[in-house]
# Entry
Amino acid sequence: MVCSVIAIDGPAGVGKTTIAKKLSKKMNAPVLFSGQLYRAVAYEMIKNKINVSQENKIIQIAKKLDMSIYSERALYTAKIDLISSKISSNKLLRKALINYQRRFPKIQKKRIKLVIIEGRDIGTVIFPRAKVKFFMWASSKIRAKRRYDQVKKTSKKAKLSSIQKEIDRRDLRDMNRKVAPMIPAADSYLIDNTNYDIPQTFNAILKILNKKN
Ligand code: DC
# Structure
């Protein structure tokens, strides 16, 4: 039997990754961070000097993607944030990455009953029949502040206003693209964590999951 999917969608900086990691531990469920696929494509574009208009080359990269070779650290840079956001509106690229995501529950060991997939269009496009769907949200102001507090620890140059601007730009691109825009699935649970910290957000999600079981 193929395992069930918990879909977690939402904008940049809302805490999806942290929540997905905590849920993964609690439920012994592997996680696919689907944004890393777009990030890995962006990484290869930078490495091979390919620009966002070279569609054929971008699709070729996506078709040959081997996710086992990237460290998490290499994929989370400001340049990759920007390029992955730009290329994610490309219809053919999105199509080329669908199979990798849909295969994820199928390639798990037999004892695994549940997987978590985090992204923007998991509950709407990739797994419209996911067992449970969450759409996480928080105001862009609070997301920018959280990111700023994080970046400030290692960089003295961090500027709240630039972080906020970049988050707003990414939101606009994610929500307004023609293909697979970031919108809550009609049957998703909306988790607005503007006024929650991580433990409160996690508890809200666990409460819903416990009710569903
Ligand atoms: O979640 P993330 O920040 O790692 O995602 C990187 C970029 O990829 C982000 O700009 C949005 C895009 N993305 C997407 O369009 N669809 C997904 N399912 C996941 C990410």
About this structure: Residues 38 and 84 are 5 Å apart (CA to CA). The pocket of 2'-deoxycytidine-5'-monophosphate is lined by residues 12, 34-35, 38-39, 84-85, 88, 119-121, 170, 174 (CB under 6 Å).
